[in-house]
Amino acid sequence: MSGIEARFRLQLASFALDVSLDLPDKGVSVLFGPSGCGKTTVLRCAAGLSRADEGVMRIGDACWQDSETGRWLPTHRRPLGYVFQEPSLFPHLSVRGNLSFAGRRTSRGRQPDRKLLALLGIEPLMDRMPAALSGGERQRVAIARALSTAPQLLLMDEPLAALDAARKSEILPYLERLHRELSIPVLYVTHALDEVARLADHLVLMADGRVRMAGPVGEVMASLDSPLAVTDQASVVLDARVSGHDTAYGLTRLDANGLDLWTARVGCEVGRRLRLRIHARDVSLALFRPEGSSITNIVPAVVEAMAGDDDDMQCLVRLRTGSGTHLLARITRRSRDLLALETGMVIYAQIKAVVPIA
């Protein structure tokens, strides 16, 4: 068996958790939803910090718990790392001491991995005490400490929630590096959609202790059935590659699975992989290819589905480009009727903003 199986049923006073998840065994699986929907409870159950009334937790062939057979591994016997909102470093130990203490939990009692220190930018901090670190630095050390135990699974419970905007911007690039380099699966909890767009490979949408939708992040965010589709943040996430630069105009050309897009110059070498987020509000539609437009990115597409009835002022349109890439466009209901949009129609999508986010 491959992947992660996590099934928990738990009654806590007036709150009931009932989730059944089959997650990939690599990449970042994000649990997303409003505060109080059960995201942290899922992580606590996975870690063995909360004991579900009924529960199964398996990673590959390893079974950590199964209420039917009575199997239960306590938290200290589960090979996992846990990063909380607050770093909770040992205040009397230096950064080096915190990491060495975590390393002693492994059978080899290993020293901190130099590659890990470089990925998180911790090498210059090794001899400093936690009180002398910024919030972002403390959280990076907490992540390194969790990974120093050589875990099979990394749990991250809103690791950026306690940071201000500046510290959050500071640490996100380090999380993106880990995203690219880590070979172990990560369960990441957040209620911030920008973190979803930048980090998620697999997305789980939760509400009221239940899973509302789950799947690859591109599919879930592009679905008209997703709870995200009714918000102003409706958008798609695309993986792209830098295919060239136009130095004369300060532009970069991107290849998103065969879809050519232009954006403002990015400081990346040709061939670098990037992630893009395109908001539905930044996509307009035309029946014919526009001429004399200031919009650079104009692509043919097919209307695949529409959401919004006569009681809605706006309509969300799901498009499929020739490369198979999906886009969302938010237009007024009046525009939908003037264009007489129907599923299967070939139209042109004008993308007003293409912004690399990772």
Tell me the layout of helices and strands.
Elements: E1 4-12, E2 15-23, E3 28-32, H1 39-47, E4 54-59, E5 62-66, E6 71-72, E7 80-83, H2 95-103, H3 114-119, H4 135-147, E8 153-157, H5 165-181, E9 186-190, H6 193-199, E10 202-207, E11 210-216, H7 217-221, E12 235-246, E13 251-256, E14 259-264, E15 273-279, E16 283-286, E17 297-307, E18 314-321, E19 326-332, H8 333-339, E20 346-351, E21 355-356
Parallel strand pairs: 3-9, 3-10, 7-8, 8-9
Antiparallel strand pairs: 1-2, 1-4, 4-5, 5-6, 10-11, 12-13, 12-15, 13-14, 15-21, 16-20, 17-18, 17-20, 18-19
Strand content: 35-45%
Structural class: alpha+beta
**Rg estimate, integer Å:** 23 Å
The number of strands is 21
- CATH level 4 superfamily of the largest domain: P-loop containing nucleotide triphosphate hydrolases
What spatial form do the alpha-carbon principal axes imply?
Answer: globular
Q: Give the neighbour order of strands across the main sheet.
A: 7-8-9-3-10-11
Count of DSSP H/I helices: 8
Poorly predicted ranges: none
Distance between the termini: 32 Å
How many strands, which pairing sense, and closed or not: the largest β-sheet?
A: 6 strands, mixed
CATH topology of the largest domain: Rossmann fold
* Tally of distinct domains: 2
CATH structural class of the largest domain = Alpha Beta
Order of helices and strands: EEEHEEEEHHHEHEHEEHEEEEEEEEHEE
CATH architecture of the largest domain: 3-Layer(aba) Sandwich
Helix content: 10-25%
Mean pLDDT: 92
